[in-house]
């Protein structure tokens, strides 16, 4: 099992760079930077700063979305980043959530399978030094590339059809779909179905889970720290239906979710998340509790990495740096 870090960039860029450096020093494999431009610092500026400030850790968007920039811009940006950090750049792609919502779009409008497949296919062709056809009917390519510059593409999904699409088009798949082994097995089966449709073998695709995370000496505080990220996850479907008794709370949360509080642990909508749904979705609690949670995830052997998403601090919550250190020293060191 590999462990990664997802960083919501609503702290100053120099702070995020120091967190990427800390993650590198603690042995995390990859640092993923979120793409929510009205809530966080700009994705490619932040990634460039992290690339210049680190030397070993992999870096990439987690995840780049289609609503804010053309796919040709994303392809040129990731190719440029690969020049700065050769061999350690990855590209997470997805239809997104918070970036769309802050622009007045709904998840129903943006979460389209065809969008994910077109993004992955187009960017792979552009990075392969090929031309693509634009919406205008014209064709174009990255003129400066000078040859293929392959970058691993991780496609993200939550529901069954989107996870199958991720399996079809991704070198990796990112599942935002619980930490519960039953749910994870269902998600893995969806990804595997897509992989089979693409003519590949299951072990050719790196499957990751995107997990709200918080670990602390005060288990109740750690769970509350992760509650806002759980709220974010619950806007999306799971590969299996939610329990009927949970549906009213989830529907209310989706109605009242404030995308402009997407990146703070002190979000008001976190109060709408009951404890059972924290247990369903998050790695959260004391080091002992989180170790047990990680070991449950590891019962699903197809999952090759866990991407921890510690909530950005709000008043009264532990710092992200504290969470990264405690997880590395008291969870990773015991389960890796």
- Gyration radius, to the nearest Å? 19 Å
* Residue share in helix: 40-55%
Instruction: State the helix count.
Output: 13
Question: According to CATH, what is the class?
Answer: Alpha Beta
Note the run of SSEs as H and E. EHEHEHEHHHEEEHEHEHHHEHEH
The helix/strand class is alpha/beta
Mean pLDDT equals 93
Beta strand %: 15-25%
Shape: globular
Short summary:
This protein has 336 residues and is an alpha/beta fold.
What this model shows, in words?
This protein is α/β, with parallel strands linked by helices and 336 residues long. 44% of the residues lie in helices and 15% in strands. The protein has helices spanning 13-26, 43-53, 71-84, 98-102, 107-110, 113-127, 160-169, 181-197, 219-233, 247-256, 275-281, 287-297, 320-335; strands at 2-7, 30-33, 58-61, 91-93, 132-133, 139-140, 153-157, 172-175, 206-215, 283-285, 303-310. The strands form 2 sheets. Strands 1, 2, 3, 4, 7, 8, 9, 10 and 11 form a 9-stranded parallel β-sheet that branches. Strands 5-6 form a two-stranded antiparallel sheet. Helix 2 packs parallel to helix 3 (71-84), helix 3 crosses helix 6 and helix 6 runs parallel beside helix 7. The model has no long low-confidence stretch (mean pLDDT 93).
